[in-house]
Amino acid sequence: MNAKRWDKIATGVLYTISGIIVAILAALLLFILVRGLPHISWHFLTSPSKSYEAGGGIGIQLFNSFYLLIITMLISVPLSIGAGIYLAEYAKDNWVTNLIRTSIEILSSLPSVVVGLFGFLVFVLQAGFGFSILSGALALTFFNLPLLTRNVEEALKTVPFMQREAGLALGLSRWETVTRVIIPECLPGILTGIILGAGRIFGEAAALIYTSGQSAPALDFTNWNPMDIQSPLNIFRQAETLAVHIWKINSEGNLPDSLAVSAGSSAVLIIAVLLFNFLARYVGKKLYKKMTSAS
């Protein structure tokens, strides 16, 4: 059997494996969407959840998910960009940077339950934040920071070294070269990674069970004072997110329509994560075309 025939066989095997994986993923997504979409309505998306009573929605949980996502990204994005710039542009190749990169790899491989328990011990108990949005956001920062840092570092490394030399030759300082030449060039990759990280955070549950809490107190959406406990903007209140709500419904089973609520919530969560992924691809392509056309 000649090399060309072996190449065709290997290619066919790879295509078959890829097709099986795509088929399994598509079947899983279709199963969730087919079961959940009939239960989604404006009332379901905006009304508060109910305990021991049918007809509740996911309005507060959905708001908590987006609000927690915003707080987490406000904390983790600046830290990850700073860490990525340091590792890619300023850090020397020695045992210290190798230790930092190894620590990032280890931290990125930790299970989310471990991150949640860490957040429970450090932020909920020791720092005294209690079960709150702030505790959940800080725990998710440790969960998301390694991935964002690696994304920023790899995006910066894709920029050719000649552009760094060109910036320095024009009289720019090293920091000005990074901020005015390198970051604009790799901005599509950085934004794509940030949006994908946001989608991962939005669907996280295990780390939030031990940090942001498992209850969704009633919120007064006419009160935007962040110091009021009933204000939606208060970061020290408990905040059950959509993913935690799905876990809680299926574990407790205290709702007469728990199957319908769980199916609808799962469909909303899947749609949101898919939108994050499509948005990342769209933004990345648009920015890449804009950068290439401008150059």
UniProtKB/TrEMBL annotation:
InterPro entries assigned: MetI-like, MetI-like_sf, Phosphate_PstA
PANTHER family linked to this entry: ABC TRANSPORTER PERMEASE PROTEIN YQGI-RELATED (PTHR43470:SF4), PHOSPHATE TRANSPORT SYSTEM PERMEASE PROTEIN PSTA-RELATED (PTHR43470)
Segments crossing the lipid bilayer: 12-34, 66-88, 109-142, 259-280
GO cellular component assignments: plasma membrane
Pfam families membership: BPD_transp_1
Protein name: Phosphate transport system permease protein PstA
Entry keyword set: Cell membrane, Membrane, Transmembrane, Transmembrane helix, Transport
